[in-house]
Amino acid sequence: MRNNIRKIVNVLLGKTTETDSEESADNPKPLTNQELEDKVFEVYKARFKEESTRHSMVYPSCFRIYLHPSDFRARQDAFNIISRDLQIEFCAYNRAEMNKYKNNRPNSPDWLFQFIEFEKDTIVGDIDNIKMGEIYTISTLYSQNFLKSKDNISNEKNVVMTKQPKNSTNPQQLNNVNIRAFLGMDMLDGNRFKIKINENYEEVNSTPKSEDRTQIYESEALAYLICDKNFISGEQRGNKYNITTNYIYISGKNDTRTGAQYAKVDYSLPDSVVQIKHENGKFYLAAYGKVRLNQMLIPESKGAPDWVELSDKSKMLINDEVSIEFTKTKN
């Protein structure tokens, strides 16, 4: 009986079994990525079964994962991949359970992962050592439990998350990284990661639109533009531009301003040739050059913007050269 209780505790803590430890005691090796994922996933499934009710799936959304220093160093370059893999496994597990919880809604907007190099006194309690190959996982339903900790994971809505290369304080210098491999993920630093939870537990897609790689989820965009040319931001190119602010400027490739409010087309156009604002649930357009809206030439503004209403599925033609279609995503 005591051994069975110990096994259950070990699963909840993410620890290896005594047998596993004895087999590797003579020749300890750092955890592999798969072993680390398996241990965290076992904790997730155990908490899922503990916390769920008759009508709602309830599961941990925040994880603090403590690793032996050797395991931490061996795995630290893969923490982003491990976080993404865990999110995929969590989604698959939840989808398989959806037939039991047809009206379920996620209890948290994000999954948060934090990987911590174990040191004495970093965990509250009597744990003063951790062996190679073992992990201790503290999993909670929400992240607020960690707000008073010096290494807390923040869930604040106003915190801007950016992708940032290791050992760098400049998130704009991101080289040799396939951004598309981590769509929907915010990287706070080298060992903290935040991934949005979709109500249907599908993988979340997002497209970074600013030069500092700030992650804006497309589902949060007010509207989007589709251009027959490419929009540009730093080294990025793409024909779709998500409108995430209440005021944007459409310019050409020579506009040196940066930020989410500047939609720059890879073409020679005047700066701010078109301005779009979102106000009281409606969109408006002002032109500072030759602009046709749904084939009608609109008045050119002189000084203050001369606004005309911009309806959903409108098409604008700038200087008879650049075609852009406007689509609302929210009513």
Provide an overview of this structure.
By secondary structure, this protein is an alpha+beta fold. The chain has 2 domains: 2-196, no CATH class; 221-328, Sandwich (Tumour Suppressor Smad4). The protein has 5 helices and 16 strands. The chain has helices at residues 2-13, 18-24, 33-51, 69-75, 79-97, and strands at residues 62-67, 110-117, 135-140, 185-189, 192-196, 223-233, 236-243, 247-251, 262-265, 274-279, 282-287, 291-293, 296-297, 308-310, 314-318, 322-328. Helix 3 (33-51) packs parallel to helix 5. It is elongated, with a radius of gyration of 25 Å.
Keywords:
single chain; 331 residues; Tumour Suppressor Smad4; 19% helix
What is the fold's blueprint, element by element?
Layout: H1 2-13, H2 18-24, H3 33-51, E1 62-67, H4 69-75, H5 79-97, E2 110-117, E3 135-140, E4 185-189, E5 192-196, E6 223-233, E7 236-243, E8 247-251, E9 262-265, E10 274-279, E11 282-287, E12 291-293, E13 296-297, E14 308-310, E15 314-318, E16 322-328
Parallel strand pairs: 1-2, 8-9
Antiparallel strand pairs: 1-3, 2-5, 4-5, 6-7, 6-9, 6-16, 8-10, 10-11, 11-14, 12-13, 12-15, 15-16
Helix pairs in contact: 3-5
- Helix/strand order: HHHEHHEEEEEEEEEEEEEEE
Number of domains: 2
Q: Helix/strand/pairing class, anyone?
A: alpha+beta
Could you tell me the number of beta strands?
A: 16
Overall pLDDT level: 77
Helical amount among residues, as a percent range?
10-25%
Weakly predicted, low-confidence segments: 17-24, 144-176, 206-219
